[in-house]
Amino acid sequence: MIFKVQDVDISTGGPLIAIMNHKDALEGDFHYEDRIRVTHKKKSTIAILDISESDKQVPSGRIGLMEEVLRILEVRHGSIVKVESEKTPQSVHYIREKLDGKELGKEKIEEIIKDIVNNSLTPVEMTYFVAGCYHKGLSRQEIVNLTKSIVHNGDTFKPKSKIVVDKHCVGGVPGNRTTMVVVPLVAAAGLTIPKTSSRSITSPAGTADSMEVLAEVSLPIEKLKRIIGKVHACMIWGGAFSLAAADDKLIRLRHPLSLDPIGMVLASVLAKKKAVNATHVLVDIPLGKGAKIQTRLEALKFKHLFEGIGKELGMKVKAIITDGSQPIGNGIGPALEARDVLWALQNNVRAPQDLIKKSLLAAGEIFEMVGKSEKGEGRKLAAQLLYSGEGYNKMVQIIKAQGPKVTDPSKIILGKHRLHIRATKSGTIRHIDNKTISRIAWSAGAPVDKTAGLYLYKHKGNRVKTGEALYTIYSDSREKLRFAASLANKNSGFVIRFP
Hints:
- By secondary structure, this protein is α/β, with parallel strands linked by helices.
- The protein has helices spanning 22-28, 67-73, 90-99, 106-117, 123-136, 140-152, 178-188, 207-214, 221-231, 245-254, 262-275, 296-312, 334-345, 353-369, 378-387, 390-402, 434-444, 478-490, and strands at 2-7, 17-21, 35-40, 43-52, 62-65, 80-86, 165-169, 193-197, 233-237, 280-287, 316-323, 331-332, 417-422, 427-432, 453-456, 463-464, 469-475, 494-497.
- The chain folds into four domains: 2-86, Barwin-like endoglucanases, CATH 2.40.40; 90-137, Transferase, Pyrimidine Nucleoside Phosphorylase, Chain A, domain 3 (Up-down Bundle); 165-243 and 259-409, CATH 3.40.1030.10; 413-497, Pyrimidine nucleoside phosphorylase-like, C-terminal domain (Aldehyde Oxidoreductase, domain 3).
- It is 42% helix and 20% strand.
- It has a six-stranded mixed barrel with strand order 1-5-2-4-3-6.
- The longest helix is centred in the middle third of the chain and has 17 residues, at 296-312.
């Protein structure tokens, strides 16, 4: 069928979408979410079909094209295009196999990932792939093949250094911004550490969300190369370019239900490390009640898989199991966490000591892994770099290289609306529930509202009196603050026992 192009002036940010009038769809036997091939002169692409019931939006005889399709075909409003039916990609049949519980071979996984990167699958089809991996699980070989396919179908970056370090936390613990302390310490020791991070999935802030308070994180790969050449480190959002591009799309699909299937978590982490040609990777696995990993057996399984699969991919991976039974640091939310990080690097008296302790542990492990220090001496080198101010100086260099916003913690803007949540009885804090604390911070607006979140005054084991402040909720929205406060008043996330 021949149509005139209707420029609908909408961008999807990914999927290639075309809109057809319901009368034309009926005449041509086209259906919602059919694949169609749209051709203009010698250029052609496949798009997913939407049906318009409104003659006003897309009149009969016209085909509405989203911005992505217009760019590919190099057409404009009124251009003439040819529309034909297109068969379903073979990868959809492989996704169905995964849903049936079958193990997918290398070629089938490669086909799925290639189609994800090329926007050949609908969000529904990609969601079914995530669901299949979540429900049926992934074998060790499937994880290896998935990791390799994600790397193969994205850009890669190879620093000039022989040793390239990376670090990752499995997550689930709010406020755990050790990466933002570790990266400048490692770089201050002369090592190369290109840290690409994701946006938040299950916490009120990810590394990229918090770093964005201090500096630009959406950078082109050419600028990344210049930064690494100059300061040997970065902390940027991986979704800004095509490093492990398929993974960022899968993360967005996992986000609504906070789905973290173990195989996809492993592939997601290791693909990003392999894409920057990391030689040595430290993985932090927080363990504890309320954390993502709640049993030691599960933590050991993660540790074994990370180290074993990392070796198969040519990387030396060391996984450490850490305390994830309560939030790390005091700030929960992008701006509040960024402030904690700068305080820690400046050796400020307001710096949370648990954040410093864990950061020194992680940096020390890295120094011992790469032979920068003798076994058992890594933490000492990390502490020297922190307390001498070299770590903070390196952080300032990183911020300035990426595009500076703030280097002074006193200038970080926090939510203008604030409310204290107070203890309803006296006693000792026996537990702080990570999920509840995260939920309250989300409700206040984090991480979309970077100024929103919580600031904790108490941690597990501390004594507290009736009426004493446990934490302050911050938000730029009065309505969101009220909603967060209503949740906190029903369940503060703190378990207090007497004595």
